[in-house]
Design a protein that fits this description.
By secondary structure, the chain is of the alpha/beta class. Helix content is 33%, strand content 23%. The chain is globular and about 55 Å long. It starts with a helix and ends with a helix.
Length: 283
């Protein structure tokens, strides 16, 4: 990685954090799905994961779709998720930063999580350095050769004008419509959540294209709900899985990494582990 590029990028490991702690990455909790009541069990499980790892964490990175649908009115936010919001605030109050990106389901998040809860919002994509390597973080929904219908949908959802017009709807109507459409979108993509598309996987195609430019050492994505880590050229690609059925997360620490499942029995089960020093030697 060119030294001038490294100097212009932030550190993935937060400045001022105690040394020799770990970084944790997760995505796609889809809180609120399929209903607020049915989501509570998963949210409690996610909270237990946060609380278990907070003592060893330098930071948490949440890469999108933490909510299945979220829309903030000028003076109102969606009802529910009280325990989840309180747990996130408690981690932040313990001086452990939580960084987040918005996904295609919660792209209408504005400033509530930053001002009221204290989370730190990241751009998408977000590039940072640590341990002499370059990291590329993205929810992943706009990365690679995605269908034009998805591109159009994401462009409309990110329209500031559409957001302003949507606020004219009464919250009961606006939130009902948003949750209904979000559920339809999730169900439409559900058959793909268990299918690895192989050479046609658009996130793989994106990373392969990056190999011809100035590739990062690590590409970390959410969105696809698959859980995997594999080598592509001089890089590693990580798909974080989800917190609907897999309960998976990535842990990075000095010299090593691992993709794990936090089981419903509160066991941490390794899916794949490796050495960052070994990666650095190979690159």
């Amino acid at each position: 990685m060119p030294s001038n590029q490294a100097k212009s990028l932030p550190s993935l490991y937060p400045e001022g954090a105690p040394p020799r702690r770990s970084l944790f990455f997760a995505s796609d909790l889809h809180a609120g799905a399929p209903s607020r009541q049915a989501s509570e069990t998963r949210e409690r499980h996610f909270i237990q994961w946060l609380e278990r790892h907070a003592p060893e964490a330098a930071a948490f990175y949440l890469l999108g779709d933490i909510w299945d649908f979220w829309f903030e009115y000028r003076h109102a936010v969606p009802k529910g998720h009280t325990r989840l919001l309180a747990a996130l605030a408690e981690v932040v109050e313990a001086a452990i930063p939580i960084y987040f990106q918005v996904g295609n389901h919660d792209c209408w998040l504005t400033d509530y999580l930053t001002q009221e809860i204290g989370l730190k919002r990241l751009s998408d994509p977000f590039r940072a350095t640590w341990q002499g390597m370059l990291y590329f973080l993205s929810h992943g929904h706009r990365i690679g050769p995605i269908p034009w219908t998805d591109k159009l949908a994401y462009t409309l959802m990110e329209s500031r004008l559409l957001q302003k017009l949507y606020r004219w709807l009464h919250p009961d109507i606006g939130l009902y419509i948003g949750r209904f459409l979000s559920g339809r979108s999730r169900q439409a993509h559900l058959p793909m959540d268990d299918i690895d598309l192989g050479e046609k996987e658009y996130l793989r195609l994106f990373v392969k294209a990056e190999q011809r430019k100035a590739p990062a050492d690590w590409y970390i994505f959410g969105h696809r709900h698959l859980a995997l880590v594999e080598r592509i050229g001089s890089s590693y690609i990580v798909l974080l899985g989800d917190w609907i059925r897999r309960y998976t997360f990535l842990k990075l620490q000095e010299g090593s990494w691992g993709l794990y499942t936090y089981s419903l029995h509160h066991e941490i089960l390794p899916l794949i582990e490796g050495s960052i020093l070994h990666l650095r030697k190979e690159a």
